[in-house]
From TrEMBL:
UniProt superkingdom: Bacteria
InterPro entries tied to this protein: Glyco_hydro_43, Glyco_hydro_beta-prop_sf
Keyword list, A-Z: Glycosidase, Hydrolase, Signal
Gene3D superfamilies (UniProt xref): Glycosyl hydrolase domain, family 43
GO biological process, one term: carbohydrate metabolic process
Short name of one Pfam family: Glyco_hydro_43
GO molecular function: hydrolase activity, hydrolyzing O-glycosyl compounds
The keyword Signal belongs to this UniProt entry's keyword annotation: yes
Cleaved signal peptide residues: 1-26
Keyword Metal-binding: no
The family this protein is said to belong to: Belongs to the glycosyl hydrolase 43 family.
This protein's name: Beta-glucanase
């Protein structure tokens, strides 16, 4: 090898090394075969590289879990989408194989998902009728900060992609909320006379569609899917029905905890009760989580306080909710997934996965340095 080629090779290796958080040999060894979760530490994939799937969601498909999340790059620029949505697969939830970029951003600067846009919290569900994998995400158009507040849609015939971008928009334009039985009159909106700030934002956005930022998708036992998102300048969470194909909003939705500024909604169901976990709105900084329960997906939802207990509970142990995973084939086994953001070096964000403990129908989330799935047997 001549000097030029040696220098080139060294540069290539250094480049590859610097583009991902460094992993110690102990952590690397663990990546070979992990048998436990170690929340907040570097989580190496099958290549020994820290998993790059922030604000993610999981899908269980044909015996494997697929983890979709925001691929972030190093530095502050990593808070914008420079690459796309990354996908990993696993059979045991501890060890993850890199499946590559499921949805690449577009090199075309006029495309909705142009490089440099903000593409957050992607979630994928499978539609049995169309046999399509359907990905929804929060989209902010390039160069507009968080002003656009749109939801984006992409679909694929294959679980790990590639996904094709279909459209982005603000949902439920022209539709008034659905009020489940038991909704107090005080919670009903009259756009001739909005009673507070959040109703004002709702009415302002009625013609063009509601703002849709932090989000999740929930698939109910009856095959219906719902898009749950922070609306009205984050003052309210909307729970919105998707059509049979899961590719559009039907116009039926309810407003949850209006006026209280909730982000990062994650939803699950146990024993016929719906649970919603969210956060406050403090940018990338952690704040106390909040949980709610309801007997119907549309509510009325009851505020239940902070599900986190013990030291660090007041800041969700440094994280923000992202998803709640029901473990396939196990009863009462749910993992609370949160992101510990590192906005100055976005790629270094960590994952906090913790088991949810049930006390009757109440929940608790406790910190654990390390844990494994055997906790669910007790
Ligand atoms: C908090 C949200 O939950 C994140 O997804 C992201 O949008 C940040 N805010 C941006 O500040």
């Amino acid at each position: 090898m001549n000097i030029k080629r040696i220098t080139f090779t060294i540069c290539l290796l250094a480049g590859a090394f610097l583009s991902a958080p460094l992993i110690s040999s102990a952590q690397h060894a663990q990546a070979v075969k992990a048998t436990q979760f170690t929340p907040g530490t570097i989580w190496a994939d099958n290549n020994g590289v820290h998993i790059n799937a922030h604000g993610g969601g999981l899908l269980f498909d044909k015996g494997k879990y697929y983890w979709f999340g925001e691929h972030k790059i190093a530095g502050g620029a990593g808070n914008r989408a420079m690459v796309g949505v990354h996908c990993y697969s696993s059979k045991d939830l501890y060890n993850w194989k890199d499946e590559g970029i499921a949805l690449p951003i577009s090199p075309d600067s006029t495309n909705d998902i142009a490089k440099g846009c903000i593409l957050e919290r992607p979630k994928v569900v499978y539609n049995k009728k169309t046999k399509k994998y359907v990905m929804w995400f929060h989209l902010e158009l390039r160069g507009q900060g968080y002003k656009a507040a749109r939801t984006g849609l992409a679909t694929s015939d294959k679980v790990a992609g590639p996904y094709t971008f279909i459209k982005s928009y603000r949902p439920n334009a022209g539709f008034m909320p659905f009020y489940p039985e038991g909704t107090p009159d005080a919670d009903k909106v009259d756009c001739a006379n909005p009673k507070n700030k959040s109703e004002g934002f709702f009415c302002r956005d009625l013609p063009g569609g509601q703002m849709a930022r932090d989000m999740n998708v929930f698939l109910d036992d009856d095959g219906k899917a719902y898009h749950i998102f922070s609306a009205e300048e984050n003052f309210t969470v909307d729970i919105a029905e998707l059509n049979d194909d899961y590719t559009a909003h039907t116009g039926k939705f309810s407003r949850v905890y209006a006026g209280h500024q909730t982000e990062a909604p994650a939803i699950f169901k146990r024993n016929g009760i719906y649970y919603l976990i969210g956060s406050g709105t403090t940018g990338w900084d952690p704040n106390p989580a909040r949980w709610f329960t309801a007997k119907s997906i549309y509510g009325p939802w009851t505020y239940r306080g902070n599900p986190c207990k013990g030291a660090g509970a007041e800041i969700t142990f440094g994280g923000q909710s992202t998803y709640v995973l029901p473990i396939a084939g196990k009863k009462d086994a749910f993992i609370f997934m949160a992101d510990k953001w590192t906005p100055k070096d976005a790629i270094d964000g960590r994952y906090l996965w913790l088991p949810i403990t049930f006390k009757g129908d109440d929940i608790e989330i406790n910190w654990a340095e390390k844990w494994d799935l055997n906790v669910f047997k007790k």
